[in-house]
Amino acid sequence: MLANLAFFALPLENTIPDPGYPTFFFFERGEWYDYVSLILVTTLLAAGAWIIQRSKLAVLIGFIIVPVLLTIFWWPYSTPGTNSAGWFPIVKQYSALIGSLSLVAMQYFPKLRHKYWYLCLPPIILAVNIAEAVVRDFQCYNIHGVDPSQGMATWGGSWNIMNGIAGILNLLMISGWVGIYVARNKSKAIIWPDLTIWWIIAYDLWNFAYVYNCLADRAWYSGVALLCACTIPVLFPFARGSWIQYRAYTLTLWSGVVLTFPHFMQDSAFAHRSAHNPTALFWVSFVALVFNLGVFIYHAWKIATTHRNPATTEVYADTRASRELVERTAPAEVQSEVAARLASTGNLPARRAGRPKRNLE
């Protein structure tokens, strides 16, 4: 079976030239300081997101003052002649920034938490970002060499199709945004219980495969480090449930770093390139597709058996992980709403469902 699967990865194997540097399976071997740099970047991004989540001053400095100053005085001059040149990286930076500020607004303007249309913004922004990457994966299927739009070596193949499908499945599993709330503790974390750890892993596998396929020589930092920075924290109680906030904030911070220091990933001593290994390209996308398909099948089964509408209620509110998260972090009114929505689908006795107090408009 493995031989049959590997067959689909073979047609380009002889057309992808040897990179000309020592490699492991996924990346070049590099130097010891490449690995230290990976850990440092991951730690700083996660720490930056943690601080901004908790501090208005950090929001003001990191998301308003610094980006404005850099836009005027630095970014127009730092990127020409690099892979980060042009208007597109600037647009990506500000799209990430707008997404982050929309979450900040939910933290500090309580009325927005009661607006259904505003609760729809996080899933819309997330879905658009996934869809954009899916389109790019499909486009890269026909690129075999230096991508003129990125200035990087890109090798299209069956992996692009597999991962594009994985991204579509991941997008279709976004659910339960009506259950987004702000934690009652000092962190004011944005909690989205329906983005389960299984969905997060599926997203990470898909997103890493996307970066590895389409931005290969950036995948060490823009793939491994960036995804670890938003996923590792949510494995611990202090950040559990707030993946969307860590993802948005770390992406915004990293996009700014790339524009400010464009040579860091391109040709500095810390640049860590892809192995451009067709077998690795195939298996990364194959695993992403299989995992997303498995999670999608379970997600569809869950919706079908509970009769829950992902747009109007949480799909996973009855799971142990979701219940414990809500009990530990949600205000009383939110807990009442969750119980009421569960009761409306026949999954919780009505006597346990308090009257909803946060009426969504």
TrEMBL record:
Q: Does the record carry Ribosomal protein as a key word?
A: no
One matching Pfam family: DUF5692
Coiled coil spans: none
**Residues spanning the membrane:** 32-52, 57-75, 87-109, 116-135, 161-183, 195-213, 219-239, 246-265, 280-301
Q: Organism's domain of life?
A: Bacteria
Q: Which UniProt keywords apply?
A: Membrane, Transmembrane, Transmembrane helix
State the InterPro entries in the record: DUF5692
**Entry annotated with the keyword Iron:** no
Tell me what this protein is called: Uncharacterized protein
Task: Give the species.
Answer: Boudabousia liubingyangii
